[in-house]
């Protein structure tokens, strides 16, 4: 006899494992299916998805290591500290990253045991619907069929590959291969100036690679506020990233010597990039193949996403939900997590809500880039009257003491009501500072509200307060 569950989650990434935990907290009998081993030495499926195994967590570990090396090798002298002949052991750096990932995946397994969640080790797909609910077929170590009253699809996404450019994760790599180089390449090419391309390009530039980024779009970081994008571009070029915009990629050849990329630049002139390794970072596509959605009457849209409603993440099949990268909206781990919680609470009969305008975005370069809400170009396109307020980190004592005085905070508020419409940061610790803005926007705060809240001195958070004051009748106190 097959097992019966109240909730079966397909996929153990951020959206899936969080959904499983929240559903278990609410008293449901829960199972979660995962099949990807992500290079597990024993071949066991690993929880955490792309984010934990080959995305967010390992990339941040490498970013931290490379920042430490660059600071010691090039900036520590500003503090009166002398270090000669600093070197980097790339293999040890990669091993540290792998150790962090292992600890995190083990932590999720502990949480599953703590919450009495059944882990189904194998690939899950729909087999149909019967009297006991949906029939889920599992192919793998825990092969069999289980029944679920409710199903949450959280299968995530994978790197988009370009035609005629075979990714072997040796010479031509996507995010997975770029996280496990055995040595620093002398010349590194990156196709795509998005989040992943900039972050991984920054890692290897700090460790000594000559990095060239080729971007098809004519503008840099088009999703960002234009002022932030302009400042970030200036700083990254100053650091040594060679960023080429408006290019058209031609033939790509891999050989024993490396990789050759033919392209035309923004003027239409033919160019060629010779590099030791190439990272292809041109977005991601949803993992919806192999789910056998047809068995329950579901279809994906023309881009491969699963259609859902705007409020509960419900599909057109009763009791089946989808969250994270397989549905509309930004492909962000924290967005997937919030949707996982929402669905579990919807199944429990609660009335949760997500304001997608208040979901923050972060790029973990140095300086970091983060934003929440609308940017200036969006507000102008809407015809909405707004008040901008901006304050530089260069006028902040803590930033100067840290040697991290690049960038600024920009607050955009409604011209009449002073409600905060968007906050945009390029600077140190932007990923942490943006949380204050997200909280303020969730509570429909005015810029004056942030300005009147006492912030610790000296701290980077004061820059957020000063920017809010600057948006409130130009009341910045230190500028």
UniProtKB/TrEMBL annotation:
The active site is at residue 457. Its EC number is 1.8.1.4. Its main location: cytoplasm. GO terms for cellular component: cytoplasm. The keyword NAD applies. The keyword NAD applies. Signal peptide: none annotated. This is Dihydrolipoyl dehydrogenase. It comes from Polynucleobacter cosmopolitanus. The gene is lpdA.
């Amino acid at each position: 006899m097959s097992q019966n569950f109240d909730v079966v989650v397909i996929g153990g990434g951020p959206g899936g494992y969080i959904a499983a935990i929240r559903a278990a907290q609410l008293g449901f009998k829960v199972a979660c299916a995962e099949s990807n081993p992500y290079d597990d030495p024993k071949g066991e499926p690993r929880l955490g998805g792309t984010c934990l195994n080959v995305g967010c967590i390992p990339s941040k570990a490498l970013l931290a290591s490379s920042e430490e090396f660059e600071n010691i090798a090039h900036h520590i002298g500003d503090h009166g500290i002398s270090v000669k002949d600093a070197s980097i052991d790339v293999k040890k750096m990669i091993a540290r990253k792998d150790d962090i990932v292992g600890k995190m995946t083990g932590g999720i397994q502990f949480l599953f045991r703590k919450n009495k969640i059944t882990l189904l080790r194998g690939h899950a797909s729909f087999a149909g619907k019967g009297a006991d609910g949906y029939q889920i077929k599992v192919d793998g170590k825990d092969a069999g069929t289980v029944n679920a009253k409710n199903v949450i699809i959280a299968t995530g996404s994978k790197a988009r590959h370009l035609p005629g450019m075979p990714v072997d994760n040796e010479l031509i790599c996507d995010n997975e291969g770029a996280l496990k180089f055995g040595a620093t390449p002398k010349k590194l090419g990156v196709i795509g100036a998005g989040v992943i391309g900039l972050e991984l390009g920054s890692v290897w530039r700090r460790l000594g690679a000559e990095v060239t980024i080729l971007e098809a779009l004519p503008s840099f970081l088009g999703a960002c506020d234009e002022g932030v994008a302009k400042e970030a571009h200036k700083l990254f070029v100053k650091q040594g990233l060679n960023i080429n915009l408006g290019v058209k990629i031609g033939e790509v050849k891999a050989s024993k010597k490396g990789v050759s990329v033919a392209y035309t630049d923004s003027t239409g002139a033919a160019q060629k990039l010779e590099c030791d390794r190439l990272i292809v970072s041109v977005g991601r596509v949803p993992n919806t193949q192999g789910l056998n959605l047809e068995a329950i009457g579901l279809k994906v849209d023309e881009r491969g996403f699963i259609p859902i409603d705007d409020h509960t993440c419900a599909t057109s099949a009763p009791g089946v939900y989808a969250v994270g990268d397989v549905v509309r909206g930004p492909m962000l781990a924290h967005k997937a997590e919030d949707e996982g919680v929402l669905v579990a609470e919807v199944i429990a009969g609660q009335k949760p809500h997500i304001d997608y305008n208040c979901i923050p975005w972060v790029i973990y370069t140095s300086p970091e880039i983060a934003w929440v809400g609308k940017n200036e170009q969006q507000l102008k396109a809407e015809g909405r009257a707004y008040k901008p307020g901006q304050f530089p980190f260069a006028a902040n004592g803590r930033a100067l003491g840290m040697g991290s005085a690049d960038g600024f905070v920009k607050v955009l508020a409604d011209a009449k009501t002073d409600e905060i419409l968007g906050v945009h940061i390029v600077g140190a610790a932007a990923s942490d500072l943006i949380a204050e803005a997200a909280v303020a926007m969730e509570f429909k705060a005015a810029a004056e509200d942030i300005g009147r809240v006492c912030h610790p001195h000296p701290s980077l958070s004061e820059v957020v307060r000063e920017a809010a004051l600057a948006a409130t009748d130009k009341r910045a106190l230190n500028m």
